[in-house]
Amino acid sequence: VTFGKKGGRNSSIEENGIEIECKTIDSMLDNQRVSYIKMDVESAECQALEGAVNTLQNYHPALAISAYHFSEDFIKRYSHRYCNPNFSFYYFP
Q: If you write DSSP's letter for every residue of 14-50 in order, what string do you get?
């Protein structure tokens, strides 16, 4: 992934920037049981969840995701796609 380091809140994933290595949650955990995942990944929530599919489906961890970049309905639908069907969603405006 290329990362534009502008400093502070203006840094982001961009086409032109420095190259950084990224790993998926699944590859970092390597089938280790996990009960809680917290993330604030600045608009990369969907990509992060895609990289955690096996972990989400096998262990059903609680998720705390800062997802104010997306609508509540979008995140709710996306999360149900990979999580326990009994998953509860809480929205804090």
A: -SSSEE-----HHHHHTT---SEEEE--TT-HHHHHH
